[in-house]
Amino acid sequence: MSSLEAIVLGFVQGLTEFLPISSSGHLRIVPAFLGWEDPGAGFTAVIQLGTMAAVLIYFRADLWRIASAWLAELRLPYAQRSQDANLGWFIILGTIPIAIFGVIFGNAIETGARSLYLIGSALIVFSFVMVAAERVGSHRRELAEMNVRDGLFIGLFQALALIPGVSRSGSTISAGLFRNFDRLAAARYSFLLSVPAVVLSGLFELRKVGEKGSPSVAATVIATLVAFVVGYAAIAWLLRYLTTHSLRIFVIYRIALGILVLVLTASGAIS
Predict the structure, then answer these.
(1) In the prediction, which pLDDT does 210 show?
(2) What is the rounded radius of gyration, in angstroms, for the C-alpha atoms of the chain?
(3) Burial class (CB in 10 A: 0-12, 13-18, 19+), 92
(4) What SS3 state is found at 141?
(5) Are 187 and 173 contacting, i.e. CB atoms less than 8 angstroms apart?
(6) Contact 231/54 with Cβ under 8 angstroms?
(7) Separation of alpha carbons 271 and 269, rounded Å
(8) 8 A C-beta contact, residue 137 and residue 173
(9) 158 closest CA partner among 178, 183, 140
């Protein structure tokens, strides 16, 4: 992988990790469009550490408050814990499904799930889930109202993001909307929930960096740094955008891209 490819893929990762359009899908689609080799699921998981660094810095106050409350109130029963302490438990609870399914279907995710047909289809199909979430949800609840059922429900939706093309942020934000949270609350929780899953996945795949047939250490570092910078800007932009806009523009983009990917793949233009 050249430095140019690393910069482009790092930019793509940083931009699409937080927008509900699937970063893993784009990291497969963009190289296919440009005639580059598939960087692989391992590379995708590792450079996500750059975007997670952006989350840790952007939400450092929230994360510190949640972690401190969780540790301080660890032995208290549910009814006596603060909302911040409970949020810590909900994040742990919401991470369990994706961890379990990630281990069970790890090999399939790294091979069969890289299919452009699957990615194009997932982009289209899950777009209708996002539309349904927008229409069904009341958009009235705030993050302080979250409970155990909400945490588990959103966590189960996060597991769907193991399929490239679904989008981790798209699935968790949609789940939050289904549970009647407003868009901003759903997005903030989506970003907080992403930390354990993405960090664990990235650290697990670090062992493959520099292996034969995978991008070099230098290319991976470049892509990760670019992903961090672009990802930080993407978080700030999306949180502002969702205060006054729906997910409609992302749905239109996903459907258009999904159709394009399927048509080009079927015609043999990309592979």
Answers:
(1) 62
(2) 18
(3) middle
(4) strand
(5) yes
(6) yes
(7) 7
(8) no
(9) 178
The number of C-alpha atoms within 13 Å of 243 and in the hemisphere containing its C-beta is: 5
Asked if the model's pLDDT at residue 108 lies above 70, the reply is no
In contact, 130 and 235? CB cutoff 8 Å? no
Sorted by where each begins, the domain ranges of the chain are 3-267
The first and second tokens of residue 31, run together, are 């190289």
Query: What digits encode the pLDDT tens for the residues 117-145?
Result: 999 999 999 999 999 999 998 899 998 89
Amino acid at the residue 72: A
- Structure tokens given for 3: 């430095």
Residue predicted with more confidence, 24 or 236: 236
Q: Are 25 and 167 in contact (CB under 8 A)?
A: yes
* pLDDT of amino acid 33: 92
Q: What distance lies between CA 111 and its chain's CA centroid?
A: 19
H-helix segments, the chain: 3-16, 23-34, 40-58, 60-72, 83-104, 106-110, 116-136, 148-159, 168-178, 183-205, 217-241, 248-267
pLDDT digits (tens, 9 = 90+) for 58-89: 999 999 999 999 999 988 887 788 999 999 99
- CA separation for the pair 245, 48 (Å, rounded): 26
How far apart, in Å, do the first and last CA atoms of the chain sit?
Answer: 18
Nearest to 258 by CA among 116, 131, 118, 120: 120
